[in-house]
Design brief:
The protein has about 240 residues and is of the alpha/beta class. The protein has one domain (about 5-240): 2-Layer Sandwich (Nucleotidyltransferase, domain 5), CATH 3.30.420. About 55% of the residues lie in helices and about 15% in strands. It is built from eleven helices and five strands. Helix 1 crosses helix 2 (about 30-45) and helix 9 packs antiparallel against helix 10. It is globular, with a radius of gyration of 18 Å.
């Protein structure tokens, strides 16, 4: 029986930290964020992906499959502060103790979540005791070519939508600066669902799901999507071409 929580987060620069780190006296969050990206490019020799400690979470999406339950949702609301999002995530994992399924979660999502929990003083004793955590990127890439094995590419190979919202992680900061938080949350939800569907396919080839069970699980996802006619889910269904 599947008992898992597939999840994804979306982040932006922690501009308050950026101001302290670099002594920036600028009231514009957008300007501070761009300075942080530029500093990162200078330090890394090219990449502008900020270290986990400089990230701030603006969206968390989850796919829960447990017992007879299946649901996809964004934690909190568009107006929820980061502390509430992080607290909701850890409260849920502490209560349900599911297998945590992610894409690049070991290197990014979980470190960011843990660092922000540390910042906000979020108590989650069961989470820190351990539990099963499955990073699909780690497992499928066997540690090789991690940058090439993107969720978009792997999902596309399985007939799943590449970018069902038209947004990628590299566009989140610009969308945030323009106040498009609902689009960010929709993007986060579709990535969480793609992660879950890749997980189902993995469980099939690992022999943990039979063909009939796999078909039943994907049918369950289709049924859920049919009951949720929001634009990003309509686009998801239209672009999904199951193998």
């Amino acid at each position: 029986m599947i008992h898992c929580l597939a999840f994804d987060i979306e982040t932006i620069p922690d501009v308050d930290l950026g101001r302290r780190l670099y002594g920036i006296d600028d009231p514009s969050d957008e300007h501070v964020g761009e300075i942080m990206f530029e500093k990162r490019r200078e330090q890394s020799g090219g990449t502008d992906i900020l270290p986990c400690a400089q990230q701030r979470i603006v969206a968390i999406a989850a796919v829960l499959r447990a017992g007879d339950k299946f649901n996809v949702w964004s934690l909190g609301t568009a107006a929820s502060p980061e502390a509430e999002l992080v607290e909701r995530f850890f409260a849920g994992t502490d209560k349900l103790q599911p297998t945590l399924v992610s894409w690049n979660g070991a290197a990014f999502d979980l470190p960011v979540l843990q660092l922000r929990a540390l910042k906000h003083g979020v108590v989650a004793p069961r989470f820190w005791e351990g539990g099963e955590r499955l990073d699909l990127l780690d497992l499928l890439s066997a540690g090789q070519d991690r940058e090439q094995a993107t969720l978009e590419a792997v999902a596309g190979a399985l007939g799943l939508p590449g970018k069902a919202t038209g947004m990628g992680g590299d566009r989140v900061w610009a969308a945030w600066c323009e106040g498009r938080i609902e689009e960010i949350r929709a993007h986060c939800e579709t990535d969480a669902l793609k992660t879950y569907l890749v997980y189902l396919r993995l469980e099939l080839i690992r022999g943990r799901l039979s063909s009939d069970e796999y078909d039943a699980e994907t049918a369950r996802v289709y049924e859920w999507l049919e009951e949720h006619p929001q634009p990003h889910w309509l686009r998801f269904v239209n672009e999904w071409e199951p193998l």
